[in-house]
Design goal:
Strand content: 5-15%
Strand order of the largest sheet: 4-5-9-8
Distance between the termini: 56 Å
Largest sheet: 4 strands, antiparallel
Catalytic activity: a 2,3-saturated acyl-CoA + A = a 2,3-dehydroacyl-CoA + AH2
Protein name: Glutaryl-CoA dehydrogenase
CATH architecture of the largest domain: Up-down Bundle
GO molecular function: fatty-acyl-CoA binding; flavin adenine dinucleotide binding; glutaryl-CoA dehydrogenase activity
Order of helices and strands: HHHEEHHHEEEEEEEHEEHHHH
Radius of gyration: 21 Å
CATH superfamily of the largest domain: Butyryl-CoA Dehydrogenase, subunit A, domain 3
CATH topology of the largest domain: Butyryl-CoA Dehydrogenase, subunit A, domain 3
Low-confidence stretches: none
Helix content: 40-55%
Number of helices: 11
InterPro entries: Acyl-CoA_Oxase/DH_mid-dom, Acyl-CoA_Oxase/DH_mid-dom_sf, AcylCo_DH-like_C, AcylCo_DH/oxidase_C, AcylCoA_DH/ox_N, AcylCoA_DH/ox_N_sf, AcylCoA_DH/oxidase_NM_dom_sf, Glutaryl-CoA_DH_mitochondrial
Number of strands: 11
Family: Belongs to the acyl-CoA dehydrogenase family.
Number of domains: 3
CATH class of the largest domain: Mainly Alpha
Structural class: alpha+beta
């Protein structure tokens, strides 16, 4: 077989990373290849994942909340965290989702908006993987418009009582703590959105798992049901008021997706190159045909560009200069191109591409979810449009 070059080599991507960043990336890659890849197709097929067990191992690896400082967190750079997301999603989007929800949603909410007591109680255990978290924002009737949520928190003496439901919540059924957002009557009579740290063993809280998914099957997805869930005053996140709280958390999670989605695309492309190099068609390798090489070249271009975009946004984030519209650029482009790459790679593998013997159809199915969660493509287009024109076209 002729000598081949990877996308990393074609774009000289390693030249853009420090030795430490490459070392941590390689450590996460090895963990994924050795510990998870041998099992992931079976987990996907059976729609299960040993979430608690993996959380402890991922905590030991140091990737849970790795971009946060203190409280047992590694305090790594945004780029390093992104590279970890990329390598985990190159295995499966469900694994990256577990890490993103734990670190960029639940832990970030407590770290950024919580009290010192809340941080001390939860963050060290969550960083170690001894406690799993989930993030309750999306509702059955309110996804892209979180301000329309119906979940309510009502004062009762010094306590808060929560009622409502959340939907499509990763880690929900296995979580030890849920960060739940609800409307209150605070802020001088106006309804204000506030966050609450809810231990999942609180009476009235339940999290039935959502079954029969065709995407993110190696991931726990749940509904959260809150029926007269009584919480003390200390359960409220004291520093978050209004939508800025949950939206800041979503922006953190979207950043990880920018890297993660392109990791899934890379894995599809590498699989297609390997397959085409050994699959014989009309007495020569499939890779020797012009049409196949045209597909591979176009996909390599998009995967490489996706890496460059992710790295650039990571550097901006580390400098404290990244803006939400720029995160939307990355999420929109990399998710949209990743799912196109997965589908095109499936055509190269032909009938073999629909089996779990190869990762391509699994990535393609997972990316159907990644494309729309943490903001649909349409929402990100409008966010970018607002940045370009100054006009908000959401309504």
């Amino acid at each position: 077989m002729a000598d081949t070059r990877t996308v990393t080599q074609l774009f000289a991507l390693d030249d853009l990373l420090s030795d430490e960043e490459k070392a941590i990336r390689d450590t996460v890659r090895k963990f994924g290849e050795d510990r998870i890849r041998p099992h992931i197709a079976g987990w996907f097929d059976e729609a299960r994942i040993p979430a608690k067990e993996l959380a402890k191992e991922l905590g030991g690896l140091g990737v849970l909340g790795m971009h946060l400082d203190g409280y047992g967190c590694a305090g790594m750079s945004a780029v390093t965290y992104g590279l970890a997301c990329l390598e985990l999603e190159a295995i499966d989007s469900g694994i990256r989702s577990l890490v993103s929800v734990q670190g960029s949603l639940a832990m970030f909410a407590i770290h950024h908006w919580g009290s010192e007591e809340q941080k001390q109680e939860w963050l060290p255990r969550m960083a170690a993987g001894d406690a799993l978290g989930c993030f309750g924002l999306t509702e059955p009737d309110f996804g892209s418009d979180p301000g329309g949520m119906r979940t309510r928190a009502v004062r009762d003496g010094s306590d808060w009582v929560l009622n409502g439901a959340k939907m499509w919540i990763t880690n929900g059924s296995v979580a030890d703590v849920a960060v739940v957002w609800a409307k209150t009557d605070l802020e001088q009579g106006a309804r204000g959105i506030r966050g609450f740290v809810v231990p999942t063993d609180t009476p009235g809280f339940s999290a039935p798992e959502i079954r029969a998914k065709m995407s993110l099957r190696a991931s726990v997805t749940s509904e959260l049901v809150l029926q007269d869930v009584r919480l003390p005053e200390s359960a409220m996140l004291p520093k978050a008021a209004g939508l800025s709280g949950p939206l800041s958390c979503l922006n953190e999670a979207r950043f990880g997706i920018i890297f993660g989605s392109i990791g899934a695309a890379r894995d599809c492309l590498e699989t297609a190159v390997d397959y085409a190099s050994t699959r014989m068609v009309f007495d020569k390798p499939l890779a020797a045909y012009q049409l196949t090489q045209a597909k591979l070249a176009d996909m390599a271009l998009e995967v490489g560009k996706g890496h460059l975009l992710a790295y650039r946004l990571g550097r901006l984030k580390d400098a404290g200069e990244v803006e939400p519209a720029q995160v939307s650029l990355g999420k929109l482009n990399n998710c949209r191109e990743a799912i196109k790459v997965a589908r095109e790679c499936r055509t190269i593998l032909a009938a073999n591409g629909i089996t779990l013997e190869y990762p391509v159809i699994r990535h393609a199915n997972n990316l159907e979810s990644v494309l729309t969660y943490e903001g649909t493509s349409e929402v990100h287009q409008l966010t970018i449009g607002r940045a370009l024109t100054g006009e908000a076209a959401f309504r």
